[in-house]
Design brief:
Length: about 425
């Protein structure tokens, strides 16, 4: 039996995961009955002053990152026994879980996940946040299988890509060579990490393996990953540029966005979910109505925000907002796709389409071919001047018949800090 927690109208339901210093529980908000993730850090676990400082730095970073592809911070609380961090709940597990259940992905599906990761990484770096522990199990999936980056416990702020850091952190399977060498590294090590994630999405395992930490490090520093023949030339080219051992010549996030393997159509559609900072301080009228129905004072939301407090009103508003963002993110993508279909039908009334579980929008030009994974349709472009011409159903085949053993990826997830060695995949 695990202890039950009840703080500020939130009660714990079940355990989600456990780390060295924290436990993560599924919680429910009594007023709205919406689910949350409740991270509990016990004060009796010999927390060092530095570790306590990192807890509040994590909270500060989470508060500064309001994005649909980053886990939403809802509130924090402290009592005599514990620190609490309340965040939105992503119910569909992690990218690692998804890989273990589906083996390697098609390039179209991998591209969809990777584009969301790329957009989130751009947003973090634009806001001068260096994650430092990007990996498959730190990327959760919401109810629509859109990503949510979590676990900012090792994150820090940076002023420029030239700023050097020397503390070794991250996970061995995903850490960049310059982190391992301990001679100073920059925020470009995040780019290496998303390269490792892309490799895992496309191939179903990590690029650098070994039977011991020493062997993994040896391979990471001096060997070249294997690139299976089923990969397209463009995907291999992007992987090589992401996994460039020299951080100075490693591809930038902006150049990743412009790479031929990335669908500009897909990037354009998905990036529409990035919030407009000018609108972030404007109260949502739909949420104002919901707050009124719950007999909560909406003016307190603004007051509590100005005072940086998280009372019942502001917390409830943020919780309702997180639910709406999940739905809106999916709707933005769906509506854009429907508008593409409508445009195609207008130009060619004979075009029809058939719904399937997984599909891809494919862009063909005289120069290159690009695919865009998306639900409910398949589009093949036959004219460079028009990105969509005909729609045909696609049979989505399952992956290879033998599922990936979780050991293939998880066996290499060794962290540098001793207090993180048992960090759970579902921790937030």
């Amino acid at each position: 039996m695990y202890p039950s927690y009840c703080i500020d109208g939130i009660h714990s339901l079940s355990k989600l995961g456990k780390g060295t210093f924290s436990k993560v529980f599924l919680g429910e908000h009594d007023l709205t009955h919406l689910k949350v993730a409740l991270k509990v850090i016990n004060k009796s676990t010999n927390l060092s002053p530095e570790r306590i400082k990192k807890i509040f730095e994590e909270i500060d970073i989470l508060q500064s990152l309001d994005h649909p592809f980053i886990i939403k911070f809802l509130k924090n609380h402290e009592d005599s026994e514990n620190y609490y961090i309340v965040q939105e709940y992503a119910p569909n597990g992690s990218i690692l879980d998804y890989l273990n259940n589906n083996t390697r992905l098609t390039e179209a599906m991998a591209r969809r996940f990777f584009t969301e990761i790329l957009i989130a990484a751009e947003f973090m770096h634009k806001n001068h946040v260096f994650h430092r522990d990007l990996k498959a199990e730190n990327i959760l999936l919401d109810e629509n299988n859109n990503i949510k980056i979590i676990d900012f416990g090792m994150s820090t702020h940076f002023n420029s890509y030239e700023a050097l850091f020397f503390d070794r952190c991250g996970s061995l399977g995903y850490a960049a060579p310059e982190v391992i060498k301990n001679k100073g590294y920059t925020a470009k090590s995040d780019i290496w990490s998303i390269g490792v994630i892309l490799y895992a999405l496309l191939i179903g395992e990590l690029p650098f393996k070994g039977n011991s930490d020493a062997e993994i490090i040896e391979n990471l520093l001096y060997s070249t990953p294997a690139y299976p023949t089923h990969l397209s030339a463009n995907s291999i080219d992007l992987l090589k540029k992401l996994l460039d051992k020299n951080p100075k010549s490693r591809i930038s996030l902006h150049s990743v966005k412009e790479h031929p393997w990335i669908s500009q159509t897909e990037y354009s559609i998905i990036s529409r979910v990035t919030p407009d900072t000018k609108l972030c301080n404007i109260l949502d009228k739909d949420l104002v109505v919901q707050m009124a129905m719950l007999n909560l004072d909406i003016t307190s939301v603004t007051t509590q925000k100005l005072e940086n407090k998280y009372g019942e009103e502001r917390f409830t508003y943020l919780l309702l907002q997180s639910k709406k963002i999940v739905d809106t993110t999916n709707n933005i993508i769906e509506c854009k796709i429907k508008s593409i279909i409508k445009e195609i039908r207008r130009s060619d009334p004979s075009v029809d389409h058939e719904k399937n579980h997984h599909h891809s929008i494919t862009y063909d030009s005289s120069l290159r071919k690009r695919e865009l994974s998306a639900p409910n349709l398949t589009v093949f472009d036959k004219r460079p001047s028009n990105p969509c011409v005909t729609i045909k159903p696609v049979i989505q085949r399952r992956g290879m018949p033998l599922p990936i053993s979780p050991r293939k990826i998880t066996r290499h997830l060794v962290k540098f800090h001793s207090y993180d060695k048992k960090e759970d995949n579902n921790s937030v």
